[in-house]
């Protein structure tokens, strides 16, 4: 069933479950935060891509205001709760400064493929090890979803939006697996070349071959 949702377009993709801290300075979005507090409403972040507001976005709930500045600016904490599709976009909600849209909620199938999950986990471990980010892998929960790692895979904003378009975890697994299989050899080779470059000019202790 369609409903009206306040909108806050930004040049980024937010995934369900993600926590996002924002600094609010524009009067229209300060008004939006005030309405979230007063009326317990949610708002949506549709990515602003290719000089336009995207059809899909992520619904956000205000968790709290961390700081309110003398000039009215705000530091807020939010959490993404779901994905929606915009049926009609309005530059201003009725009687408000901020934008809004008539939206439909997008259903998602959370079913995972265990074999794909195992392959993705192996590739992610290789990726983080090559980049010196092993702590990210160590801290990764066993029940992670693609959404939980998507910002740490070297995806472009457009590729992240493709993940948002996917309506099942299986589809997201396939997209991420294809991406990792494509970039992992390139990254590992680049890191190997960097290691070789660091050795240039240093004394090398090499064992000659026996022949």
Automatic annotation (TrEMBL):
Classification via InterPro entries: Lon_prtase_N, Lon_prtase_N_sf, PUA-like_sf
Stored SMART domains: LON
Pfam families, alphabetized: LON_substr_bdg (PF02190)
Annotated PANTHER family: ATP-DEPENDENT PROTEASE LA (LON) DOMAIN PROTEIN
SUPFAM superfamilies: PUA domain-like
Lon N-terminal domain ranges (all copies): 2-184
Name recorded for this polypeptide: Peptidase
